[in-house]
Amino acid sequence: MGTADGAWRLLAVGWRRAAADACLALAAAAACIVAAPVAAAPATMLVQVYFNNDRLAARADDCATVFAVSRQLPKTAGVATAALNQLFAGPTEAERAAGYRSPFSATTAGLLRGVHVEHGTAYVNLNDPRPLLAGATSSCGAAELRTQLERTLRQFPTVRRVIFAIDGEPRAFYEWMGESCDLSNDRCDATPFRRGR
Amino acid sequence: MYTVKFYKGDYLQRQQAANKDKAVAYVEHHFNSSSSEQANYAVVVVGSNASNTSRNWGRWYAKAVADQFGTKVAGDQGILVGGWNGRGDGNVKHTAMPALLLEPLFASNPQQAEIIRSDSGQETLARILAESVRRFFPAGGLVAFSVGHKYKTSSPNDRGAALAGGGTEADHAEKVLKKAATMLTEEAVAPAQRTLRVMQGGRLLFETPVDEDAVVVWSSERNLLFIPD
Question: What pLDDT is recorded for position A116?
Answer without folding.
Answer: 95
